[in-house]
């Protein structure tokens, strides 16, 4: 009989500096990603910004809200703490995981292509929603792998508030729907999307929608125009969420969920239209057989598919939505950011006091 060898657990980081040095690789391993663009450098974030995953690979963290709490955690290792102190630790670690998730991607991915894709309509909303939702779902495991639950007992008994109420609910609803369509486990779509940069997220999303239908068998070769319409529906709908980013969380959540419903309705409309067009194409050579005589019947002639479909009531609200027109930062190496207490690709901004 052979005995399986169990690899020993890595030692718990003994200091904040050691924790930070190992934080990126542990995040990459937790996500199952092939690559992290983090260059190993950590710098103090500019005023008002909690965390920033810079396009050059540098991780920026706020001194007061991130670095100081992590140092305090190790200075008082093993001690019991009040809930507000534990919440402060947890919030610092949540930001750390969120920013590391921004650096993840497949082997061969580059920050240059990710940055170019990030500027397209809907990309920021999708990536931020995916990154935040995935980080929320995996924060407890991240804390465990870092050994923080042994250094700060009780840290998993408190919850970080989370951000992006305008993006996360919609991303979760779309992901859950795609999991049902494709027979995937719960959370698998978020895992897959989180391993991609902005350059790969929309192609993956469109694949998941298209391949869950009959269209791969009906459209030969696979329909480029159909896939383009599906992508446009997803992009315009997700870009619309930007309008709710700075609203109250409860309002943003409600609008995010209703927008997701509209996106799904419109996707289903596009799928039905494409399937109908493929099934009743005039160029079909299939012959029907009479059930009474057994002889082949002449091909049925179908009216051509109308060029203009009558849109559903929500169609106008989801198509042709212009992307946000806010001016881009002068330094295009930085991810666009709003000066607000919200997570953006530019990082987490501290609320004004």
Write the SSE topology.
Blueprint: H1 16-31, E1 35-36, E2 42-44, E3 49-53, E4 59-61, H2 63-75, H3 83-102, E5 104-105, H4 111-118, H5 123-146, H6 148-151, H7 168-182, H8 188-194, H9 198-210, H10 215-218, H11 224-239, H12 249-279, H13 315-318, E6 343-344, E7 347-349
Parallel strand pairs: 2-4
Antiparallel strand pairs: 1-5, 3-4, 3-7, 6-7
Helix pairs in contact: 1-3, 1-5, 2-3, 3-5, 5-7, 5-8, 7-12, 9-11, 11-12
Task: Report the count of strand segments.
Answer: 7
Structural class: mainly alpha
Average predicted local confidence, pLDDT: 83
- The H/E string reads HEEEEHHEHHHHHHHHHHEE
What is the helix tally? Answer: 13
- How are the strands ordered across the major sheet? 2-4-3-7-6
Shape: elongated
Describe this structure in words.
The protein is mainly alpha-helical. It is built from 13 helices and seven strands. It has helices spanning 16-31, 63-75, 83-102, 111-118, 123-146, 148-151, 168-182, 188-194, 198-210, 215-218, 224-239, 249-279, 315-318, and strands at 35-36, 42-44, 49-53, 59-61, 104-105, 343-344, 347-349. Strands 2-4-3-7-6 form a five-stranded mixed beta sheet. A two-stranded antiparallel sheet has the order 1-5. Strand 6 (343-344) and strand 7 form a beta hairpin. Helix 1 (16-31) packs across helix 3, helix 3 (83-102) crosses helix 5 (123-146) and helix 7 runs parallel beside helix 12. The longest helix has 31 residues, at 249-279. It starts with 15 loop residues before the first helix and ends with a strand. Residues 283-346 and 349-353 have low confidence and may be disordered.
